[in-house]
Amino acid sequence: MAKRVAVVLAGCGVFDGSEIHEASAVLVHLSREGAQAEVYAPNIPQMHVVDHVKGQPTPEQRNVLVESARIARGNIKDLATLDVKGLDALIIPGGFGVAKNLSTWATQGKNCSISKEVEGVLRAFHAAHKPIGLCCISPVLAAKIFPGCEVTVGHDTECEQWPYAKTAEAMKELGCRHINSQVTEVHVDARNRLVTTSAFMCNAPIHDIHDGIGKMVREVLGLA
Predict the structure, then answer these.
(1) What secondary structure letter does DSSP report for 56?
(2) pTM over 0.85
(3) Which amino acids are annotated catalytic?
(4) CDD domains from the entry (predicted)?
């Protein structure tokens, strides 16, 4: 039987939704490993819409589920319908949508709240001892929900290669343990069954990001 993995998206586009390359890499690696991806997204308005040419917000309004359906080629379900009992693992790609639509991390940092649906799904997989894969900014969700967990978002010292390293410091303040790692590496928190990798938190060649996500997928499936 193929392992069934829930992939939760947060829209379509790095600045206001799921990072498209990360989401695609997750789906490609799941397919390569013979797993069945089931894509979900919350049926909610986006926090805002960003013009990805100008990098500026626009007056438009868009829906997270509708936009995520672009990545899923229409094969997507409302997150409210997710049933952990029929699934083996959960993966959440990164992108600013995680910090804007799935949580309020973008505006409130460590003091953020997480969408009730998203928190419920994460807690359900955790309680069922089923593995959770998180990349890029999405490990902040685990840091907020699971005190004492171990995660990585890359490095904790800001530099040109690691422009978002302050995220690691904020996560430490939440009581989690941050593990410095390279973009092609993952960290496995065996106790919490969490697998994390930095992806686009690093200024790295896209193939390195793709490879790191591949390792995350394989580790998640190995725990499933």
Answers:
(1) E
(2) yes
(3) 136
(4) GATase1_ES1
